[in-house]
UniProtKB/TrEMBL annotation:
This is F-box protein SKIP1. It holds the Pfam family LRR_6. The lineage of its organism: Eukaryota, Viridiplantae, Streptophyta, Embryophyta, Tracheophyta. It comes from Liquidambar formosana. Gene3D superfamilies: 1.20.1280.50, Ribonuclease Inhibitor (3.80.10.10). It comes from the Eukaryota. SUPFAM superfamilies: F-box domain (SSF81383), RNI-like (SSF52047).
Amino acid sequence: MDDEGGSESAPSSDWAELTHECLTNILARLTFAERWTGPMLVCKSWLHAFKDPSLHSVFDLDTQFNSATESTLWWSPQFERKIDAMLRSVVEWSGGSLTEIRVRHCSDRSLAVVAERCPNLQILSIKSCPHVTDASMAKIAFRCPHLRELDISYCYEISHESLVLIGRNCPNLKILKRNLMNWLDPSEHVGVVPNEYLNACPQDGDSEAAAIGKSMPHLELLELRFSKLSAKGLALISEGCLNVEYLDLFGCANLTSRDIANASSNLIKLKKIEKPNFYIPRSVFHTERYGHWRLYDERFQTDVFRI
């Protein structure tokens, strides 16, 4: 305000003139969603800062999925391509520094790039990926030896062969999550997950259990929800994975209380076990429909998915 009651405009701040170090410091303080929905579009210097490797050591989309109601669009080829494009971009920007990936609905296309350019990867979570196969998992096994956590839940094109390779080539693996969808009561997935994928639920529970028991001796946490393993498979796990502290067998309908008690007696470090937690009469195994058996399981809740 001048002496005559007039006004003078304050000098405007030119955000584009901020140093690269200052910009990366600002971007590092933003949430993942905030970082991806604006700053990169401000100007070239902001885009350059956004691509700084220091901002891309972790790529976590899981929080975005967990905060949204599951959608049929997630299972579409278009959405898969979008996720692949994001993942490949982050891999490129990370400059080899990427250590943690938590994503869903990616494919072999992007995972092949991860295997090639992320030798320091320690955490890989790729739930609900219908087009991730043993081919890309073999590349991960051979080229990401520092892996210590793997989540391949609901990835039905990954077989026990991948588990063997991961176990042999990733000696630091401590956490494995290999959960399946609720095949006893698939109604919660009907209308969202394609029917052909629901019907493709892996049948080789004991083969996977054998692979885990024989090649992953250092596991501390193991999740096998709704696995079709039997007492034989569980025994192999208990004989080979003596360091397991947490074991989740919820929904494993082929196991009895006696099976679990016999197996857990070997696991001297076991602190917590999630048991199947329901009773199914033997006669139910002679039928083809399980829709009337309502079992509790975690469901996707909250808001619309946004990235």
